[in-house]
Amino acid sequence: MQREQVNVVEEQNLSAFEQSLKSNDTEEKIDIWFYRPIGFRIAQICAKIGITPNAVTIISIFFGVAAGILFYYGDLWINVIGMLLLIFANSLDSADGQLARMTDNKSRFGRILDGFAGDFWFASIHIAICLRSINEGWTDWLWVFCILAGVSHMIQSAMADYYRNVHLFFIKGKAGSELDNTRDLKVDYDALSWKKNFFSKFVLNGYMGYTRNQEKLSPKLQKLLHIVKSRYKDDLPKQLMVDFRMKNKPLMKYTNIVQFNTRVIFLFVWLFIGQPWIYFFFDMFVLNPILIYMCNRQEKVSGYFVDKLTNDPTYGE
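That's the CDP-alcohol phosphatidyltransferase sequence above. Prediction below.
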């Protein structure tokens, strides 16, 4: 009897856990096995005591920035503490989204804040590594590579996040995705007043630029989204959802590679061997080619469906 009760509880917990995820298509295995379970427990605690998703995100910023500061020091044990702080910061980053889905407390501002959180972490990490390496003998020219790596990271993360949300839009519809576009953002932006809504308008202006850059790097995808939204509104036909998922799902592994886990694993390795400067070159010369490949592949997928929808008006009906 007790075993049956335990099984029922485990099934209920599993169901709640699965509901806190975006989609198995877009989740990385390390996240599902490690970060998401930890994040789920944190989210449960936060839900009970009334901590909001945005508060969790802000707390994660402090832990992530602190981790970066500790990477400045040459002492390995201090670096290990930084690694643990960064792992915990990412667990909080997982928890904020899970908490938002569990409590139905999702907002555009929360999404924007969540995106900026990672930028704060890695800005701290880049600066700390650069200062440390210069102290250890590198010239000031290392700042050039530091900045180029930082810009690369921002573009990689932006496009990976965008492609994930596009995938979620096509398999779950508008309600299951956080996909934004500059046209809708401009409407909301124009409705705000600099005098009465200065902070909201300022944040939305930055986010609009961020979204515009994502769209510039995906012209065929923009054409596909325009056709789909004008023809089907938000009610996508089942056939299109199935076909798009089949062709686009293989690209999700590349969005994961250029995101947190892969870069952090290599960062930790280079910290252990005392050569963290390698991280800058890994960002530029390993992850950037993967980014370019990912963008080209996605454009081919989008081009396929643009041709399909253009040449066959009855497709999906």
